[in-house]
Amino acid sequence: MVATPIGNLGDLGARAAAILAGVDLIACEDTRHSRRLLDHLGLRKPLCAYHDHNEAQTYPRLLARLRAGESIALISDAGTPLISDPGFSLVRAARAQGVDVVPIPGPSALICALSAAGLPSDRFLFLGFAPRTSAARRAFFDQLAEEPGTLLFYETGKRLVATLEDSRAMLGERRQAVIARELTKRFETFLTGSLGDLHARVSADSEQQLGEFVLLIEGAGGGEGARQEREEARILDILCRELPTRQAAALTARITGGQRNRLYRAALTRQRSESQADDSSYP
Ligand code: SAM
C-alpha cells in the first residue's frame, strides 16, 4: 500500500519510490494518471487498472498473482490507498489468506489538513465525502451535532457551498471551521472562520470554489464557537428572567452580535422547557 503525493510530486517518499521501482506490478486507479508519476521517477513498469468499478473482478486476480510469489504495489490517484479510495477488498482478502500487506506511509489530504488547520487534533472523526443531496446531508450533520471531536470531510468544488450551507443550518452559524484547499499545490489556501462566515465568503468568491478541499469543523463543546455559544446562552438566560422573551432575545443579539431570530427561537424553547419543569413540580 504505497501513499503517493496529493499534488506536490516532491512529497513522494524515498521508500515509496524504491518500492515502486522494485515491484513486479503496480495496481492503480487510472493508468494514464499514474504513468505521469512513474515518468517523473523515470520508471517504466507494468500497470493494471484497479478502481471502484472493477475492484470485485480484479482483486481475486491480483491475489492469485501475489500467492504465486509476485509483488504488487497498490497506489491511488493521490494520497493513501483505501482512504476514500479503492483497496479494502484486496487488503482484507490478502490478510485472510496470509499474504503480506505492507504499508508505505506518506501523504493523505485529511492528515495534511489536520496538521495545519489549527483545530483540535487530539480527537477527530473522518467522514469521507458528505452525502450528495441536501436532505441526506442535513440528516447526516444533525447526527453529528453532539460529536466532540473535530469533524473532517472531503468535498468537491461543486458541492462546497451547499455543504457549508447545510452544515451551518444543522451545526449552527458559529461553529468554527477551516477549509483547506489545494493542499501542497500552488494555490494552497486555508480559510478559517465560523460556518456562517465561511459560507458567506466562499459563496461570494468563485475562486474559493475551485480545486480540491478538506472541510474541518470543530467538535461540539470545545473551542471559540462553543465558548461564544455558552456565553450567549448565559446572557439570554439572565435577560429572560427579567424581560419579555422578544425583548430578551433582541438585547442578547445586540450584546453578543448573534442572530436575533435564532435567539428568539432559543428563548422560546427555554421558556417551554421551563414551563414544563414547573408543571411537573405540581402533583
Ligand atoms: N486517498 C486520498 C487521501 O489519502 O487523501 C483521498 C482520495 S479522495 C477520492 C479525493 C478527495 O481528497 C478530494 O476530492 C479532496 O476532497 C481530497 N483531496 C485530495 N487531494 C487534496 C488536496 N491536494 N487538497 C485538498 N484536498 C484534497
Entry keywords:
283 residues; alpha/beta; Cobalt-precorrin-4 Transmethylase, domain 1; Methyltransferase, Cobalt-precorrin-4 Transmethylase, Domain 2; 2 domains; five-stranded mixed sheet; three-stranded parallel sheet; 11 helices; 8 strands; 48% helix; 14% strand; disordered C terminus; binds S-adenosylmethionine; cytoplasm
What's the arrangement of secondary structure elements?
Elements: H1 14-22, E1 25-28, H2 31-41, E2 47-49, H3 55-67, E3 72-74, H4 88-96, H5 109-117, E4 124-129, H6 134-144, E5 150-156, H7 160-171, E6 176-181, E7 189-194, H8 195-204, E8 212-217, H9 223-242, H10 245-256, H11 260-280
Parallel strand pairs: 1-2, 1-3, 4-5
Antiparallel strand pairs: 5-8, 6-7, 6-8
Helix pairs in contact: 3-4, 6-7, 7-8, 9-10, 10-11
Bound molecules: S-adenosylmethionine.
Structure description:
One of its GO terms (molecular function) is methyltransferase activity. This is Ribosomal RNA small subunit methyltransferase I. Catalyzes the 2'-O-methylation of the ribose of cytidine 1402 (C1402) in 16S rRNA. Helix content is 48%, strand content 14%. It has 283 residues and is an alpha/beta fold. The chain has two domains: 88 residues, Tetrapyrrole methylase, N-terminal domain (Cobalt-precorrin-4 Transmethylase, domain 1, 3-Layer(aba) Sandwich); 175 residues, Tetrapyrrole methylase, C-terminal domain (Methyltransferase, Cobalt-precorrin-4 Transmethylase, Domain 2). Helix 7 packs antiparallel against helix 8. The longest helix has 21 residues. It is elongated. The termini are far apart. Bound molecules: S-adenosylmethionine. S-adenosylmethionine binds next to helix 5, strand 5 and strand 8.
